[in-house]
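Notes from the pairing session

We agreed to fold both candidates in a single pass and log them together. This is the raw record for the first candidate, unedited. Please don't reformat it; downstream parsing expects exactly this layout.

Candidate A
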Amino acid sequence: MRFKGLDLNLLVAFDALMDTRSVSRAAERLNLSQPAMSAALARLREYFGDDILVAHGKRMHPTAYAESLLPQVQDLLSQADVLIATSTVFDPVTSQRSFRVVASDYVTAAILAPLVRQISVAAPQVRIEIVAPDERSDEMLDRGIVDAIITPAEFITSDHPTELLFEETHVVAGCATNPAFKRGRIAEADFMRAGHVGVTMGSSRAITFGDRQLELMGRTRRIEIVAASFAVVPWLLIGTPRLAVMHERLAVAMARHFAIAHAPMPFEFPVMREMLQVHRARTDDGGLVWLRGQLKAATGRKQPIKKINPRA
């Protein structure tokens, strides 16, 4: 399709070229041959009267003009993606739709894993793709690359509607044979004296909600090991006196498979509010309305949830 002499497919090629800075990788992403992508770059150069990408040694770098075009092209592609994907009609029994959801390993283990088992029966052809959160999550929602984000309230973007999905309590977890758990509670002195397993998230090594709250409270623990994921924490606790602060739902799920015990925090600790976001242009998308309903049911929030409008 052409618009004012421009083949609109070239905008997709432009976006891939700018993201990968490579003709071969852009071709691979779009399932094109390398000569076809080279031809697309040549046509882009001809239409815009600019080199777009310039080779410096073995690397390609975008021109200043190409950099200025990128936000506009991404916005156009995002709007087109939302327009194409959005439909008020959705039949889970027959749909072959794929949903991409940004969710942590904690949300995946505690909420999404049991939910996916239910969805496989109710919607056998629907596919759920779970994307790990990172510093680009907000951008991916903006561009329509992902359908939804599940994240603590502290990490939400103000650009899209947000609703409370569930609230979570944090607990102290450790090996089931740890004597500190014998009374069913952990003394504050034992908590502060013990070695701990900490967790950081994503390539930016961001701290978790629990660790952030402990910092704000001025409670400095002795961190012996820092893990890159909650998923590996059980292996770092079993057979040791170490402790870890984690979400109660996750601790319960882990205890089904590992010799892990948990107890309430030994002092008052804030409740975490886990939020759900979808693109502002897709709140009436029939498929996303269905998915949001499934998520609410899975977290015990079957009643309608009041939507929080984007902040100014």
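Candidate B (folded immediately after A)
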Amino acid sequence: MSLPSLETTPIPGLVVVRLDRRDDARGFFKENWQREKMVGIGLPDFGPVQNNVSFNSDRGVTRGIHTEPWDKFVSLATGRIFGAWVDMREGESFGATFTLEMDTALAVFVPRGVGNSYQVLEDGTAYTYLVNEHWRPGITYPALALDDPTVAIAWPIPLAEAIISEKDQHNPALDPSTAIAPKKTLIVGALGQLGRALQADFPGSDLVDLAEGSVGDRTVARLDLTDAAAVAAWPWHEYAVVLNAAAYTAVDLAETPDGRRTAWAANATAPATLANLAATHGFTLVHYSSEYVFDGTAEEHTEDEPVSPLGVYAQSKAAGDIAVGTAPRHFLLRTSWVIGEGKNFVRTMATLAANGVSPSVVSDQVGRLTFTSELSRATRHLIDSGAAYGTYNLSNGGDEMSWAAIAREVFTRSGRSGDDVSETTTEAYAAGVLEKGGPFAPRPLRSAMSLAKIRATGFEPEDAMVALDRYLAD
């Protein structure tokens, strides 16, 4: 058998690892923790930050059953134990148990929310474990009685003869009402069009934005990621996933002095803060970027194309992408021409059609629409499917189209003739804006992105025109 190897147990996520222990006349050597090999056999890349050792001088010492809010990798440096684990998490496996006699050739990965306990079978047993959060004094963690009749652990040494701490002698019985809830999801930018869409696929998420507010009956708390004190006070350890839907998207105003500062704060500084927090607290960071990070000269943009941003907005988004890439667990979704709840290009064209206006729309910018519902659906898919972390392009599917062609589609669906939409160029449109004294940011002329990578994960983007029909019908 190739070692290390992994064996599953009746408790979801709890796995036994058989270590590659090398014995000789002197004793033994083993790689107790080797990240590349452990992850390679299927162990979660849980990111340990602290190593603890519990030395047990006498046979019969019994500790537990403790349920701490972190993942744990337990093993022995010396001796033998009888280990017992109880699933204390909400769900069908609540109360499930697993026991195992362990020596120094075995280790067990214990996921957050699973109660951990052991009984020492040899004098001088050294129990060692890695955890992925720092221990904090003064915090009470859930516990379970060692003699709980429901789980009925068959301890090899009767508990009446065991050495048990005063505290562990008074642990409570199993109670479903105290089951441990999973870590939560946080949506940053919950009041924006993408943030609102994400709430449909991530119900029950905590919601924050730069200002307090509400979405339906849900309260949106205030959190400014540029406020160091507010960031430090936020309970980041409670989250498994953070969805960063916040962004500064006023591409033209970003060319002004005030806009430049705001764009960099929202699109670069805030994502960098979240990336650092993701590394510290171990949550998965999902961030949404833009095809504006490219100069638009490629026929089709792929995920590995080097960034080449043209304007301030684009530069700030590219900087944010680089920062997010440092988070150990991240999904970076690059998207284009986003359409969601509130004011946007499609709504504007529909209003113009209804009011009898015949607009002139640029025809030399080509790409695909991305509906926020599709972005949200793709996010849910990537997280649930176990897709590899990294960068993914995401837009709706179908043919590439110009803004003018999309405007015509909106007009025909609104009862107007597509011929009522005339064409102009980006250069001519920019000249008109600049002539009136307004700022104008350079645009990539080709925004179409390859969708091959996300399709390879099993996600099929919906045709943009099918999504447009539904959007206009709502």
